[in-house]
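S1.2 Input.
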Amino acid sequence: MILVTGGAGFIGANFVLEWLARKGEAVINLDKLTYAGNLASLESVKSDPRHVFVQGDIGDRDLMERLLAEHQPRAVVNFAAESHVDRSIHGPADFIETNVVGTFKLLEAVRAYWGGLTGEDRANFRFLHVSTDEVYGSLGKNDPAFSETTPYAPNSPYSASKAASDHLVRAYHHTYGLPVLTTNCSNNYGPCQFPEKLIPLVIHNAISGKPLPIYGDGSNIRDWLYVTDHCLAIMAVLEKGRVGETYNVGGNNEKTNLEVVKTLCAILDELHPDSPVVPHEKLIVFVKDRPGHDARYAIDSSKIRNELGWQPQESFETGIRKTVAWYLANQAWVDNVISGEYRNWVQTNYATRT
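S1.3 Output.
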């Protein structure tokens, strides 16, 4: 079996579902269940004996040691992280605690566990750390895409905390020999994403007749990766990746934020014509930009493509249509996560923007 941390979050839950469907191997799923962790995303495997959920914190060393000793996983896949730039601007402390201190404590527990393994169990064990392209900083319009050798230059508390966690993982390999793998991905989208992020936020607001806030002039560029493609990339790295290596994972879909929002509006005009305001583009408003907003991210995925044979299966056009359709068909899921805490966050982040 494998141990997945952060497996009730957006990417983690999608990974658990894909893993059980494609691999069939048992999963111990640890998640702290903060605001972004949602067991409703895992409802389809609630009674599956191959899926064991444990509520807990990667920073709880005693808990991690007990889980590792009891279940003897052959791999740990670490998704657990605070992951929203805007939240890190308003409150960076949680990001340092989870992404830096939590990763350190997890590495310590895993190092002790791995140190006690012998033979093939020790040789085959892997620790896979899931990270972000934001650690590389910001690109100009004509700059080459981020590669695995791009120097780190994080610009937000979130990306700085993830950069620190990446460095810790690398150091534990080079100092202690821990068999680690790291992936750095571009912006994910798809089912079960908490509606603080751009795409689910726009879908929710649009069908509710609420404003669609776009930072600045909407010219910031991101490379968009459908979450299932990301999950398949992680599986490929876990199975075939070279120990100690980093693999960048991108969707080959660079879009400005304004392009993304207009695409969503056009699809919603077609699929949800009974919204309070149609065409949905009428709801677009440009608001004050966030501090230090990176201009462009782009990923060069040639290493994972050439070494491991992975490439994205979804274009942005196919993936975004699937995403809109999922949210329209799963309003109960959305209603469940839009709690008082979510409303408080929207008020905190958007109320003062003009």
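S1.4 Remarks. The chain has a mean pLDDT of 94.
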